Automatic annotation (TrEMBL):
PANTHER family reported for this sequence: ARSENICAL RESISTANCE OPERON REPRESSOR ARSR-RELATED (PTHR43132), HTH-TYPE TRANSCRIPTIONAL REGULATOR KMTR (PTHR43132:SF8)
Protein's name according to its UniProt entry: ArsR family transcriptional regulator
Keyword DNA-binding among record annotations: yes
Native source species: Pseudomonas synxantha
NCBIfam families: HTH_metalloreg
Domain HTH arsR-type: 1-87
Rhodanese domain residues: 117-206
Length: 212
């Protein structure tokens, strides 16, 4: 699965595949449709061919590409469906933030540092345990989003919770804030996540660092 994902994990290859799903095409036509050079398209098509994703046949001077055997069209369609699902979640979060701007207001990293120094907030990481173990903000408590409603008792009542996930466009932290506010917990989302924290030159913890 990792090898297949690695092969598909390039925007040009996905763009080429999307065109090939619609029908057999020459490398020149594929380059035109995807807006990349013929040489570049040919290089990426060779990667796809070695992985068995596409097959070729020669028609005069032209090399034509078609999908390889197997449910590759379904894979491309599933990727589209997942991206559409994620976009819908982001749109929902943006709409929610516009309708309830005070409740969905985020905290900047600088502001969070001040509050942490004062001991005024609880930092909540709502990613899964594996991501948390690899790197998290120092002192953060890890409660994955799907467990939050059942484990809210682990958070100190009367103390503001600042939730974060993978970055400024990750809707999980916004969903966590909504859940906590519904349960009567004062909560705010962090304007960023681990990547922004690292980019600011701030230290991160791992599961080993956090162990007693």
């Amino acid at each position: 699965m990792a090898e297949v994902a690695k092969t598909l994990g390039h925007p040009h290859r996905l763009a080429l595949l999307e065109q090939i799903v619609r029908g057999e095409r020459s490398v020149e036509k594929l380059a035109e449709l995807t807006g990349i050079s013929v040489a570049n398209a040919s290089q990426h098509l060779q990667h796809l061919k070695r992985a068995g994703c596409v097959q070729t046949r020669r028609d005069g001077k032209h090399m034509l590409y078609r999908l390889g055997p197997g449910p590759l069209a379904a894979v491309v369609s599933a990727l589209h469906d997942y991206v559409a699902f994620q976009h819908a979640r982001i749109r929902e979060a943006i709409t929610d933030s516009r309708q309830r701007p005070q409740e969905m207001e985020s905290v900047s990293i600088d502001s969070l540092l001040d509050r942490l120094e004062e001991g005024a907030v609880v930092l909540l990481d709502i990613r899964d345990g594996g991501e948390f173990a690899q790197a998290h903000l120092p002192g953060a408590i890890n409660i994955p989003l799907e467990q939050l409603a059942d484990r809210v008792g682990e958070l100190s009542r009367g103390t503001e919770v600042v939730a974060y996930c993978r970055g400024p466009y990750c809707v999980l932290s916004m969903q966590a804030v909504t859940i906590l506010q519904t349960l009567g917990v004062q909560a705010t989302a962090l304007a960023g996540g681990v990547p922004e924290w690292r980019a600011a030159g701030l230290p991160l913890q791992t599961a080993v660092d956090a162990a007693p």
